[in-house]
Design goal:
Blueprint (H helix, E strand, L loop, with lengths): L26 E7 L7 E8 L2 E9 L4 E6 L5 E7 L6 E5 L3 E6 L8 E3 L2 H32 L3 H28 L4 H12 L5 H8 L4 H5 L1 H11 L13 E3 L5 E3 H4 L3 E7 L4 H17 L4 E7 L9 H11 L5 E3 L8 H5 L7 E5 L5 E4 L3 H12 L1
Parallel strand pairs: 1-7, 11-12, 12-13
Antiparallel strand pairs: 1-4, 2-3, 2-5, 5-6, 7-8, 9-10, 11-14, 14-15
C-alpha cells in the first residue's frame, strides 16, 4: 500500500491556550472579505485538550474585521467566521498583519506582513499540491491492484516514494533557510512525525533553530520525540526488564549473546505461531555459536480469559526454549511502547554491543542474517 499522505500538522499537535493579556505591542490582524458580507461573527481560536479557546473575537462590518491581542511567542491559530465554511490557519505573532479573506475558501486566504505566514503559505501550498498528487497515485495504485498488475503497483509506489523524498528535501531546505522562524519547527516536526527524516538528521537541524523556535510548543514536541529511545538500525537497543513465566525479572542486558534476537509475539497471533518453527530452527542451529533470543509476548487481550495460561501453553507447544518475558498487557506493554510496536511478529537483531543491525526479518531472511553474523 502507498504510505498515507500526512497533512500539515495543524491538527496533529494539540494547540496550547493563549495568553489573555492585551498589549499595544501585540498583534493586530486587519481582515477584508472579498465580496458582500453580512455582519458575521469572527473569532481567532486554538484548541486545548480538544476544547476551543478563543484568543479574540469581533463582528465583521462592511466586509472588514480587526482582531487584537498578545501572544507569548508565534503560534498557530485558526480564524473562523460564522456563515463561512472551514477555517484559516494563521501563525499569530506580535505584528500587524493584513489578511485577504476568500469567502469560498478561507483556508486559501492570504496574509501579508508576517514572515511566519509567508513560510506557512509556501508549505501549505506545497502540501495541498502533494495531497492532490497523493489522490492521483492512490487511484492509479488501486487500478493496478484490481488488475493484479504487481509490477505496476511497485512502479507506482517507487514513483510516490521518490516524490515524497523530493518534497521532504525541499521542505528541509526551507527550514535551513529560515532557522529563525517558529514555523520551521512546525514543519520539521511534521516531517519527523511522518518519518520523512531520521532522528539524527532531525536533531542536527533542530539544534540550528532559534531559541524561540526551540522553546515553542512545536520545538517542545520535537524535543520529546527526539528524547525517546531510538529503535532504528544503527542505534543501541533500549534496555528493558520484564517477568518470565516464573515471575522472575529478566533484563535484556543480562542475557545478550554475540547476537541477540528480540522477538515480539503472542499466543493469539497466527503469523507469529506460523513463524515460530523457523525461529526454533535458527535457535537450535546457532545457540551454541552465541545466539540468544528473548521473546516478548503481547498476550493479555481483553478476549483472553487466562492470558498467562495461553502464553505458557504456546511456549510449550511451540518448543520455545529461549528466554520469555511478558507483562501480559497486550499492545499496552511498556516494552512494546518502548520499541513502538504496532504489529507482530516483530524482530530486532542485535550485535554483541547491543546495537540494532537489522529488524523485522522472518523465514530465510532471518536465518541468512544470523548466518552472516555468526558463521
Amino acid at each position: 500500500m502507498l504510505r498515507n499522505f500526512i497533512p500539515f500538522f495543524l491538527i496533529l499537535l494539540t494547540l496550547n491556550s493563549c495568553k489573555e493579556e492585551q498589549s499595544h505591542n501585540g498583534f493586530i490582524i486587519n481582515g477584508k472579505i472579498d465580496g458582500p458580507s453580512k455582519n458575521y461573527k469572527a473569532k481567532l481560536i486554538s484548541f486545548n485538550n480538544n476544547k476551543e479557546v478563543v484568543l479574540d473575537s469581533t463582528t465583521v462590518v462592511d466586509g472588514a474585521l480587526t482582531l487584537k491581542g498578545t501572544v507569548e511567542s508565534p503560534d498557530l491559530y485558526y480564524l473562523a467566521i460564522d456563515g463561512l465554511a472551514g477555517f484559516m490557519p494563521i501563525m499569530v505573532e506580535n505584528e500587524k498583519m493584513e489578511v485577504t479573506l476568500y469567502k469560498d475558501s478561507l483556508q486559501k486566504s492570504v496574509v501579508k506582513g508576517s514572515e511566519e505566514n509567508d513560510l506557512l503559505k509556501i508549505y501549505q501550498d506545497d502540501s495541498e499540491a502533494l495531497k492532490m498528487k497523493n489522490a492521483q497515485f492512490g487511484q492509479r495504485y488501486r487500478t493496478a491492484q484490481t488488475n493484479g498488475d504487481t509490477l505496476k503497483m511497485e512502479e507506482i509506489k517507487s514513483e510516490f516514494n521518490k516524490l515524497m523524498e523530493e518534497t521532504n528535501a525541499r521542505h528541509i531546505q526551507l527550514i535551513k533557510d529560515n532557522t529563525h522562524l517558529v514555523t520551521s519547527a512546525a514543519i520539521l516536526g511534521n516531517i519527523l512525525m511522518a518519518k520523512g527524516i531520521s532522528k539524527a538528521d532531525a536533531e542536527n537541524i533542530f539544534n540550528t533553530l532559534s531559541k524561540e523556535a526551540i522553546d515553542s510548543k512545536f520545538g517542545k514536541t520535537i524535543d520529546e520525540i527526539l528524547s525517546k529511545a531510538s529503535t532504528e538500525v544503527g542505534n543501541v537497543a533500549p534496555d528493558f526488564s520484564a517477568p518470565n513465566p516464573d515471575g522472575k525479572l529478566v533484563t535484556l542486558s543480562d542475557i545478550k549473546g554475540k547476537v541477540t534476537i528480540i522477538d515480539f509475539w503472542a499466543a493469539w497471533c497466527g503469523p507469529c505461531r506460523k513463524e515460530n518453527p523457523n525461529v526454533v530452527k535458527v535457535y537450535e542451529k546457532y545457540h551454541d555459536k552465541g545466539l540468544e533470543i528473548i521473546g516478548v509476548s503481547l498476550d493479555g487481550t481483553p478476549n483472553q480469559k487466562d492470558p498467562k495460561a495461553a502464553w505458557m501453553d504456546a511456549i510449550e507447544k511451540d518448543n520455545l526454549t529461549w528466554h520469555q518475558v511478558s507483562n501480559l498487557s497486550y499492545f499496552n506493554d511498556p516494552i512494546a511502547k518502548l520499541y513502538s510496536i504496532q504489529a507482530i511478529p516483530a524482530t530486532y537483531i542485535l550485535d554483541s554491543e547491543g546495537v540494532i543491525v537489522a529488524k523485522n526479518l522472518r523465514g530465510d531472511a532471518l536465518e541468512a542474517k544470523i548466518a552472516e553474523l555468526l558463521d
